[in-house]
């Protein structure tokens, strides 16, 4: 239902904004695919690789690491382990849920190509859209089909805001190596470092101050300091003086950071489709230009067809 035809809905307070971030499905998505190796394994599976040896060789991944990632994906219903009827060899086949991660990897690959970082997550044939084209897919509002810019989105509360926050996983994010910290990180590395991905997600939800990141994410101050410094060094955030007080600074998304928005939206869309919790999250996103609730649509640059 269009927002303009309904009752007035309040904007969230700072407290509610923090709770919205803690309740966000992005936590569960990053718990599952917020790992660089997992994303690369999914990319190979989407490209048609099914045998363990083929995956290990093409990714140059330790066999124990590959076994662990395949086991995790199977436990989360993203793939099935089947046996070849003739040879008896094990084959790893993505389920519908696993194949649904294609758009996330496609958006990651586009971001990498735009900023000339990383390697191809998807082989050329696997990157072809359902319309048959390999052209870029642009994020649009599914209601008015205008380009979906993050600054045109407004968070609004609904009347069923959950009283308790979703627990944040205690899984430890992998520290980047010294060489990785010097290089420009790829999209999968940004999401593969769990705290980095969550900080970017919070920034898109309107968090700007150090104390706000700390309270919203429940992150230790030393970890937060390191991740904010890294994101600033990577050109994803800029540290500027707070307009409210000259004694503090805020962190704003740069053009490079803002261009990561389709990756975040694709991750959220997959999570809401497959990992949706059993409660109303208590908030929705309004696309301000058309005053409709935002539903994402990824549109082929070549033919204009919306992709699924």
Report on this model:
- GO terms for molecular function: DNA binding.
- This is HTH hxlR-type domain-containing protein.
- Keywords: DNA-binding, Transcription, Transcription regulation.
- Residues 23-120, 179-279 form the HTH hxlR-type domain.
- The protein has 308 residues and is of the alpha+beta class.
- The chain has a single domain (3-33, 103-122, 129-307), classed as Orthogonal Bundle (Arc Repressor Mutant, subunit A), CATH 1.10.10.
- The protein is built from 14 helices and ten strands.
Which features does this protein show?
single chain, alpha+beta, Arc Repressor Mutant, subunit A, three-stranded antiparallel sheet, 10 strands, 14% strand, globular, disordered N terminus
Number of strands: 10
For the largest beta-sheet, the strand count, sense and barrel status come to: 3 strands, antiparallel
Task: Provide the helix percentage.
Answer: 40-55%
Measure the end-to-end span.
22 Å
The ordered string of helix (H) and strand (E) elements is HHHHHEEHHEEHHHHHEEHHEEEE
Strand order of the biggest β-sheet: 3-9-10
CATH 4th-level superfamily: Winged helix-like DNA-binding domain superfamily/Winged helix DNA-binding domain
User: How many discrete structural domains?
Assistant: 1
Instruction: Give the CATH topology.
Output: Arc Repressor Mutant, subunit A
Overall CATH architecture: Orthogonal Bundle
């Amino acid at each position: 239902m269009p927002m303009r035809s309904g009752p007035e809905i309040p904007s969230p307070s700072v407290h509610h904004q923090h709770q919205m971030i803690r309740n966000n499905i992005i936590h569960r998505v990053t718990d599952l695919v917020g790992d660089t190796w997992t994303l690369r394994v999914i990319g190979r599976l989407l490209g048609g690789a099914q045998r363990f040896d083929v995956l290990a060789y093409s990714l140059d991944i330790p066999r124990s690491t590959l076994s662990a990632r395949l086991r995790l994906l199977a436990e989360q219903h993203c793939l099935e382990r089947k046996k070849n009827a003739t040879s008896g060899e094990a084959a790893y086949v993505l389920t519908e849920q696993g194949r649904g991660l294609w758009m996330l990897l496609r958006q990651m690959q586009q971001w990498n190509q735009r900023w000339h970082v990383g390697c191809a997550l998807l082989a050329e044939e696997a990157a072809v859209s359902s319309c048959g084209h390999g052209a870029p897919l642009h994020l649009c509002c599914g209601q008015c089909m205008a380009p979906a810019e993050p600054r045109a989105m407004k968070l609004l509360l609904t009347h069923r805001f959950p009283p308790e926050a979703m627990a944040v996983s205690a899984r430890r994010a992998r520290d980047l190596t010294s060489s990785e910290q010097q290089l420009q990180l790829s999209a999968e590395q940004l999401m593969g470092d769990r705290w980095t991905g969550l900080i970017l997600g919070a920034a898109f939800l309107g968090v700007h101050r150090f104390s706000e990141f700390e309270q919203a994410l429940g992150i230790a101050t030393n970890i937060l300091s390191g991740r904010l410094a890294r994101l600033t060094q990577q050109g994803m955030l800029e540290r500027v003086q707070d307009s409210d007080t000259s004694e503090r600074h805020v962190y704003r998304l740069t053009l490079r950071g803002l261009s990561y928005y389709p990756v975040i939206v694709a991750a959220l869309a997959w999570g809401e489709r497959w990992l949706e919790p059993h409660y109303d999250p208590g908030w929705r996103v309004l696309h301000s230009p058309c005053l409709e609730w935002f539903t994402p649509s990824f549109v082929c640059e070549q033919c204009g067809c919306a992709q699924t």
